[in-house]
Design a protein that fits this description.
By secondary structure, the protein is of the alpha/beta class. The chain has 24 helices and 10 strands.
């Protein structure tokens, strides 16, 4: 096995993925199922509170129930299909669960707590359609069974055709399956070639139930290896053991094939291709199969002689058995060949011994890998310890922040508990400083008026409120007499000028009217031949080379379209710069931009056009506007309030 596929959901199997990669496998992860949690009516959830035993058949069952309720009864007996499910149950609900040694349906049914369940309330928390055998067995034992489906597994794709094509191209040869639903999802294909390839893969399943489902429903032809549980570590050990067994089997097969090829000669039909030893062996076999008989040819020859001669000869003759020297040699060579076969068997035993040593080395390598796993777990423990230290530090930080927040809150409460008069004086002192900045520095008359109104309301908390109110009234008159620069009006005017820039006529050349061309009429008088010749030549020149005659001097080239766009864009840039400087009250930049726009307008646009003249007049008017306020005012209220506070 070189390329393994994990079909578990994306949030599961991560440890298995990393361990397999560390062990030298090429690993792919394709979640074939999508999980949807189901809504369950409160009446169905209520059976858990009355149950004697609650069985959780997966981690997803625990997580699905956690979306529906927060707690579980403490007096109920809980059963989990595996250690991972029990761990999630402990973390989520804080309850302990029994875990069978064989972490599947058969293992749970073997537990003592489920042996005698007659008349007991049993609840199975599971997925839609899952574990029918468990339910049937508990019902047959007399249990009062309730099944609570809290999630549903659906294939991630309607058909597995694209998956199978990708897996086949990737040369997947081992697949990890943890449920019947996952098996159904990957076998849901209409491509016979892909299904035939899939049936030949090696499957690692977490229960005998899934193995039977693969063999009975889909007739898989590859190996189906059942692990001791669904934990990543257990599946990882099973895959390593399968790889070691496969390597030993391949080495044994190779050694036996090599030994057999050395012991048995190739079978050929042509005697001419046999080696001398093979020919000798074949000759020996033929010799041992020959039936020995008397020499009848000699007797038939002697029968033609006179009878007395034949009779006397027959009485004294003895039958002889022929002995072949070649046969003796063949037998000798066959014995030698048997010795060679024995030597081949000895060689095979040596190879087997070497393979056993190799298996021992693989076991040692496995021990090293296990030690590495232990080391990684130790590192993980250190990481968890570091995370725990970080949590403690975070707790200390949160505690310090809570302490600081408590101190701040106490200070706020202390300020709030101060007498209202003292609090009002503090607020008034702050508003006085803000008033000076807004009125004297920024000339923000609107904000200054709002601040004075607030100070007038706070005057009742001072010893002489009428003095403060009189000062505020005086300052309000002063502020309301100030004029704000017409910034908004100037900004809107500039915006309108920018929009009109595209309509302004540029300073381009207007060609004068062409001179009228007289119609050429030839005279019929022969004496006018010279005049007719001149008229004919002028007509020919007019048709061949057209020359326009104007009364003015030679004109300069006209502006191209791109040059015209650049001139208009430059004018718009001046106006936009003036808008920006206006809102920032940057007088120098504002004046420079407007004067630049006027100069650009007079240089490149037609100043005789009425619209250009109107634009120039408006720009000059805007340039004369003051966008800042230079008025220095003196407020009375700040001095009065500060004197009363002191």
């Amino acid at each position: 096995m070189k390329h393994l596929l994990i079909t578990r959901p994306i949030d599961k199997g991560n440890e298995l993925f990393l361990n397999l990669e560390a062990a030298g496998f090429k690993v792919s992860h394709t979640p074939v199922l999508a999980l949807d949690y189901l809504d369950v009516a409160p009446a169905q959830l209520a059976v858990i509170d009355e149950a004697d035993v609650v069985i959780f058949i997966s981690q997803d069952a625990v997580k699905g129930l956690a979306t529906l309720r927060d707690t579980l009864p403490a007096s109920t007996q809980y059963v989990a299909v595996g250690t991972s499910t029990a761990s999630v149950l402990k973390t989520t609900f804080g309850v302990q669960a029994l875990v069978p040694k064989q972490q599947d349906t058969e293992g749970m049914l073997a537990l003592n707590v489920l042996a005698d369940v007659s008349g007991k309330q049993i609840v199975i928390v599971k997925g839609q359609g899952g574990r029918p055998d468990l339910a049937k067995s508990l019902k047959s034992r007399g249990a009062l069974l309730n099944q609570l489906a809290v999630y549903e597994r659906k294939p991630a794709e309607l058909q597995s055709d694209e998956w199978l094509d990708l897996w086949k191209r990737s040369e997947i040869d081992g697949i990890v399956i943890t449920s019947n639903a996952a098996a159904d999802a990957i076998f849901n294909s209409t491509q016979e070639d892909a299904l035939s390839w899939l049936k030949g893969c090696t499957f690692f399943v977490v229960s005998q139930r899934i193995a039977l489902h693969l063999q009975e429903t889909y007739r898989v032809q590859g190996d189906v290896i059942v692990t001791d549980g669904a934990q990543d570590e257990v599946v990882f050990k099973a895959i390593l053991s399968a790889r070691q067994a496969l390597a030993i089997q391949q080495e044994l097969t190779s050694a036996l094939e090599q030994t057999e090829s050395e012991r048995l000669p190739p079978d050929t039909s042509s005697a001419s291709t046999l080696s001398p030893i093979q020919k000798a062996t074949q000759t020996a076999k033929e010799f041992t199969s020959v039936h020995i008989e008397p020499d009848h040819t000699q007797e038939s020859t002697m029968s033609e002689q006179p009878q007395h001669t034949t009779s006397s000869a027959a009485m004294g003759a003895k039958t002889r058995i022929p002995v072949s020297k070649v046969g003796i040699l063949a037998l000798t060579l066959a014995m030698m060949l048997g010795g060679a076969g024995a030597a081949a068997v000895w060689y095979g035993e040596q190879q087997l011994s070497a393979m056993n040593e190799r298996a021992t080395a693989l076991q040692q390598e496995n021990a090293v890998l296990q030690q590495q796993v232990v080391t990684q777990k130790a590192q993980l423990a250190k990481l968890n310890q570091a995370i725990s230290g970080f949590d403690e530090q975070l707790s200390r930080t949160l505690s310090a922040q809570q302490s600081l927040m408590s101190d701040t809150l106490a200070q706020v409460k202390e300020v709030a508990s101060l007498p209202q008069q003292q609090f009002a004086k503090s607020e008034a002192a702050y508003l006085v400083h803000l008033l000076r900045f807004k009125a004297v520095v920024e000339h923000d008359w609107q904000t200054s008026e709002i601040l004075l109104s607030r100070l007038d309301k706070l005057a009742v908390h001072f010893a002489e409120p009428h003095v403060i109110s009189a000062a505020i009234a005086q300052d309000l008159v002063t502020i309301r007499g100030q004029e704000n620069p017409p910034l908004e009006t100037a900004y809107v005017t500039l915006m309108g000028l920018v929009q009109q820039a595209s309509e302004l006529p540029l300073l381009t050349l207007k060609l004068p009217e062409e001179n009228a061309v007289e119609q050429v009429v030839l005279s019929e008088d022969v004496n006018d031949w010279q005049a007719n010749l001149k008229r004919s030549w002028d007509k020919f020149a007019e048709d061949f080379i057209r020359i326009r005659k104007r009364e003015t001097i030679t004109a300069e080239p006209l502006l191209s379209a791109s040059e015209q766009r650049l001139l208009r864009a430059a004018f718009e840039a001046y106006l936009t710069q003036a808008q920006t400087a206006l809102m920032k009250q940057q007088t120098a930049v504002y004046q420079s931009a407007l004067h630049g726009a006027i100069e650009h307008l007079n240089t490149h646009f037609d100043t005789n056009a009425a619209v250009v003249k109107g634009m120039t007049v408006e720009l000059e008017r805007l340039a004369g506007i003051s966008i800042t306020t230079d008025t220095q005012i003196k407020l009375v209220t700040p001095d009065v309030i500060e004197g009363l506070i002191q």
